[in-house]
Q: What sequence folds into this?
């Protein structure tokens, strides 16, 4: 049994408080959270771990949306316009993904762990990230992606997806969760999407999808016109949108689903997402680099939608560090109250993310996995400013525990 003390503890449970001179007692799971003075008396046999001054204990961070197979990208892809980016992905993906070896992906996972990410959602297009994900100490929800918009490819694409899903299932554990990703409404044929969603339901796994990311996607689905027409016509000359937006969303009504981006989603779609208890994943840096606009965060909150944060892959980011992502969000959402936004963001990478992924972690609370990080503020700090100052100043953790085991 270990007793970890710090100047501040942020449990990030429903109560939202901060405990000064606090501590967490844990083995593989959390036994108790409270004032360190009280817990030292109550658990005299626990091994005490002290932390440096101005340290803050938090639940390990959860990055619900990344594409590790694109980790070798730095400067190959075209930024600033979604369609130009998509064309560049298609041009370069074979070369980029071949460079993303297990070793490279493992090194990115290690960097993520050092920055405090103890759980992640990995969108896997090819299965090339399986070994690195299985071997990493982090909890991984492994989203096997399915896509293919043309009817005649449905069988081949489903078979390939099913093979990858079955391979990932062989590694299922308390650290590794096979799951399903349906790529998007513009790229995934309804037959393919429905089969994959049925499988997710039978297997009891969570589902991820990209939805309403770009203006081009909005225009295509609403008017059958715009840049997607030319793009999709190369695969099928008389191509039409595969769904209305509501038809697409309704397919997910019985799924535990995470919808990524939603920058171009309208009131009607957000209302439906809310009624389906869906999660929205915000990827602010990716949105900026792909030129798709800025998510209306207050609309997401007004609709009561569970908000999570993702870095997306290095295909549309320069960092997989969630502190970098939260910093970007704080600086980007200029209309939001700064201090309140910082709290919202910390919830989005902890309790909200655990809820979305259906995992018993994401808060410092009795009974949950002891996935705990220690971060250090450079100097003392007024307690109501801690969430904001942490986001502004943190890059790495001082310590990271997963399942009660120390990795950093
Ligand atoms: O989230 C970003 C932007 N939107 C869509 N897809 C991707 C993103 N990052 C990587 N992708 C992948 C996606 O998984 O790019 C491919 C898919 O395999 C695009 S479709 C050829
Ligand atoms: Fe993505």
A:
């Amino acid at each position: 049994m270990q007793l970890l003390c710090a100047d501040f503890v942020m449990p990030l449970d429903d109560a939202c408080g901060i405990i000064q001179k606090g501590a967490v007692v844990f083995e593989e799971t959390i036994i108790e959270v409270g004032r360190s003075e009280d817990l030292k008396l109550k658990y005299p046999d626990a091994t005490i771990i002290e932390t440096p001054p101005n340290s803050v204990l938090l639940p390990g961070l959860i990055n619900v949306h990344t594409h590790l197979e694109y980790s070798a990208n730095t400067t190959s892809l075209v930024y600033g316009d979604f369609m130009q980016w998509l064309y560049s992905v298609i041009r370069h993906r074979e070369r980029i993904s071949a460079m993303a070896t297990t070793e490279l992906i493992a090194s990115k996972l290690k960097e993520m762990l050092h920055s405090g990410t103890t759980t992640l959602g990995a969108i896997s297009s090819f299965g090339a990230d399986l070994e690195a994900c299985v071997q990493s100490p982090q909890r991984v929800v492994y989203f096997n992606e399915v896509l293919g918009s043309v009817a005649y490819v449905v069988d081949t694409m489903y078979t390939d997806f099913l093979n990858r899903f079955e391979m990932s299932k062989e590694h299922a554990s308390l650290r590794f969760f096979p799951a399903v990703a349906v790529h998007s409404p513009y790229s995934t044929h309804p037959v393919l999407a429905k089969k994959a969603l049925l499988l997710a339901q039978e297997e009891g796994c969570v589902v991820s999808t990209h939805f309403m990311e770009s203006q081009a996607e909005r225009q295509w689905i609403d008017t059958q016109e715009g840049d997607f027409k030319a793009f999709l016509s190369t695969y099928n000359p008389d191509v039409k949108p595969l769904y209305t937006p509501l038809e697409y969303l309704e397919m997910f009504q019985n799924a535990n689903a995470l919808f990524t981006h939603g920058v171009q989603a309208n009131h009607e779609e957000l209302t439906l997402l809310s009624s389906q208890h869906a999660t929205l994943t915000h990827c602010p840096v990716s949105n900026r680099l792909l030129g798709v606009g800025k998510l209306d965060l207050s609309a997401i909150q007004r609709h009561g939608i569970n908000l999570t944060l993702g870095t997306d892959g290095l295909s549309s980011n320069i960092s997989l560090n969630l502190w970098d992502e939260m910093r970007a969000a704080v600086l980007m959402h200029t209309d939001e109250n700064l201090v309140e936004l910082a709290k919202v963001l910390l919830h989005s990478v902890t309790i909200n993310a655990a809820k979305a992924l259906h995992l018993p972690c994401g808060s410092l609370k009795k009974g949950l996995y002891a996935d705990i990080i220690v971060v250090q503020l450079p100097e003392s700090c007024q307690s109501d400013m801690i969430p904001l100052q942490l986001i502004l100043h943190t890059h790495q953790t001082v310590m990271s525990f997963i399942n009660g085991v120390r990795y950093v």
